[in-house]
Amino acid sequence: MRWTDLVLLSAQNLWRRKLRTILTMVGVMIGTASIVVMVSMAIGINQGNIESLAQTGELTRVELNSMTYYTYSGGEVPTITLDDDTTVEAQKLDDTMVRKIAALDHVEAVTPLMDVWVFTLRTGKLESYNNPQAVLPGSEEVLGMEFAEGGGFSDDMGETVEVILGSDTLSSFHKKNSQVYTDEAPDLDWLNEKYSLIYRDYNDMENDEPKEYEFKARVVGVLEETGGEADWNIYCNLNNIKTLIQKNKSLFKKDSELKVTEYPRGYVKVDDFNYALDVQEEIQKLGISAWSYAQMIENMQQQSRSMQLMLGGIGAIAMLVAAISIANTMLMSIYERTREIGVMKVLGCRLGTIGAMFLCEAAMIGLGGGIVGLLLSYGIGGVVNLVMDAYGGYSSFRSVIPLWLAALGLSFATLVGMLSGLYPSQRAMRLSALAAIRNE
Amino acid sequence: MEAIEPIIKIRNLVKIYHVGDEKLRALDGVTLDVYPGEFLCIVGRSGSGKSTLLNMLAGLEKPTRGAIQIAGQRLDKMNESQLVRFRLEHVGFIFQQFNLFPALTALENVTMPLVYRGVAPKERKKKALTMLKQLGLGSHIRHKPTQMSGGQQQRVGIARALVASPQIVFADEPTGNLDSRTSDEILSLIKEIAKQNGATLIMVTHDNTIAERADRVVRLLDGKVIEIIDNKTGLREVPDPSPKEERPA
User: Fold this and answer.
1) Interface confidence (ipTM) of the complex
2) Is A265:A65 a contact under the CB 8 Å cutoff?
3) Which residue in A325, A366, B24, B227 is a FRET match for B196, CA 20 to 30 A apart?
4) Does B118 touch chain A (CB under 8 A)?
5) Among partner residues B99, B112, B118, which is closest to A437 by beta-carbon distance?
């Protein structure tokens, strides 16, 4: 028998019992939809998490941490444990190391970062106590900066310190010793105000007040809100800071945290998020502790996979019920068609063909139910997303049905149909032709 | 008789049914030859074993003992798949109950044996149409079985049995469900078409007027052949009642 005839005959047989076929398909539809919707939510939650990370531009970033910076000479040399449980000695994060890291594969840019928390930024009578960090010109991209006003650092090596303000730092400017804190940013022409960096020497107190030193500063840019940590940062041009420290050696030499030969931290931008973990490992091998969101995402994805399995498993219960109902429908159908099957055998229809016909019918119930179930899943997913968009706000609870899930849902429904049809089709093949045509 | 090789050789065929603790001998040592192209009637009272014999010849039932050889193949040694294949290649079957597929039209019913043989749609439609026209059903090809009279249904059944040009056609009381006038018509049609196709026709009936129109008549009683009548020559043969140890070559 030709396979086209087989499919056609099977379809015809199903059509003869429309109502029963449809009712059985509804079972498969519910089974498919419950699996697909459940898994799509697990995927959606995971994707939402990744997206909210990606929005901050932090996915392709690897953070560097020097393990030597804050330890005093003479102490034990700290070590870093790699993935394969070997250890390497921690190295200084200095300019040489920065160049080494920059030369690694998939590294787009590197910037060392210095915490210059000893400074605060002041304009007029307002001062922000947010902790400034110093980074190199060119690191704007590494840090994923987007400017609302102004732009990035210049190549100027002078001692006037260039500053970039994170979006939320604007509201951190308050009157000195003010007890009133508001979330509102003062109304300033941010790029054109006069600024100064204040250094307070707590070793030199007058009237319980540390002595203040003032250095010139200039705001060159204000950042767009990103939702990431950059919003709260005040960035200083590292070149200017270095010049400043070198010109005031006598003042800063007491402050062991202000070294100019090495850096405590740094950021690396990789060209592709998928290589972030590799780059992270390579950097660790060089003796610098490294961390990235990629690691976090890997953990998240593992969690998501087990969640997909769990939710899919719950959905599979509905599918199991559907499978039983397919088997039941097929057995009923074979019982009713006993005579017909017998006649087919007498007319010389091969046993395999008879089996294949019933298997095909069961598979078609599965496939049909699967298709409708998939459409239903898209519908339910759409409604869930609409509701979430309307009321969810920050919630990342969404339904996402990738192509692979749709394909998997359909194949699974078809497979369940075939498996359920396996026993009935065997029964049909084993029916005695004689008994079949004898019964009245 | 002519020196033609029989198309069917039956040797010492025994069928025993177990009904509870009792053994029922439905066939008790039947030996018979059937020649190509002839019209053979098997007659006998109900319970004489005639239907059992027919079912066995069609490979629908296994003999307890004995041998059946059809077109050079031993049916008693085949498994079910081989029997199905054998029927596909050699046998057409006409039922008392017509046994048409209720959901299919007359045309579709007739094409089914060709569908099982994997014949292309165009060709099988052509063959089925020719067959139906031959049987005078040219205007009923789109009718479903329930929309046709018994005689019409049986004509569809005949067309279905013969459409694949089988060597042998079995008919189990084909007119049993029809009135006498229609019976006569149907019988003539079966005979005619079988002749045209050169098919051997073996028919089970308890109707003596039908048996009169066969080439030969085999009468069964209690599972034994009690007489074979050749209607052309009028010769009556009574077989040796105890040929039990005979086996075919």
Assistant:
1) 0.88
2) yes
3) B227
4) yes
5) B99
